[in-house]
Fold Holliday junction branch migration complex subunit RuvA.
Amino acid sequence: MYEYLKGSIKDFYEDKVVLECGDIGYLITVSAMTLKSLSQDAGQTKIYIHQHIREDEMTLYGFGDKQERKLFRDLISISGIGPKVSIGILSSFTFDKFASYLSTGDEKAISTAPGIGKKTANRIILELKDKYKNIIPTHGDSNDVISTTTTEIRKEAAQALESLGYSYSEGLDMVDRIFIDGMTIEDIIKKALSSSAFATS
């Protein structure tokens, strides 16, 4: 089994890259987050590998770091969740954001990923919450850990934006872009709407 492959990137596709190592081109499926971090001009590129073998095919899945690969492997260990769905999840959220959703049990946010309904989101939380409960990201440039209270305020603000016509995931993104510790829900809504209007003007 491969631990990683190191070489130069020759081609990009929608969800795949071709990595040339020793005159062999490896077709590797990657998440959107990993794809964004790769460049053909980077010279030697290391991609961590998960090799998935079925009777009729062998697929290589690639990751920018071991942390993302571990999350992928944890996801595919859950009954009913295969590699394609797991890559879809990793393409929808950064590692830190997804770990935050797991630790706070935010099934509504997780269910915005393609192929994930609320039942599946709840199963993911049930299976993985304890593994990721201590991996809570810092917010923005602050070194303070996001508290449960802060998380609830962010969720309520996103739900309020949802009632105004935005999707829940759009609302969370809007909140995360402008949130400062100590803001009330009313402050968040006003600032989020103001920032959104400015961005589209």
